[in-house]
Specification:
105 residues, mainly alpha, 4% strand
Length: 105
């Protein structure tokens, strides 16, 4: 009886090992096809701070790009908002410090 139980455990182990190998192959294939771990921003060493600063620069009509509110209007139009209907913009701020010590972009 012990021999039968050992054979049963061995069969279960074989099935689990085959399932694990199949899972690993499927995961590798999925990663190759979808490139889930690839980020062009990390490749270029661009961090969130840099993106936030660039967006704040482009969205601020008073910045040195001399495009006035063109970038800001384009940004809002991509969000399906009409900037003219939202009223006067008070300020563009890259980061906001919360009262818990965190930062909000």
């Amino acid at each position: 009886m012990n021999q039968i139980s050992f054979n049963g455990i061995g069969a279960i182990y074989s099935i689990l090992k085959a399932s694990e190998m199949t899972y690993d192959r499927c995961r590798e294939y999925y990663e190759q096809m979808s490139a889930t771990n690839f980020s062009s921003l990390s490749t270029l060493k661009i961090r969130e701070f840099h993106i936030t600063q660039l967006l704040a620069f482009l969205l601020n009509p008073d910045e040195a790009h001399h495009q006035k509110d063109k970038f800001l209007k384009l940004f809002f139009s991509m969000l399906n908002y009409n900037l003219d209907e939202l009223g006067e913009l008070q300020c563009i701020q890259a980061e906001y410090n919360t009262n818990t010590g965190s930062r909000f972009d």
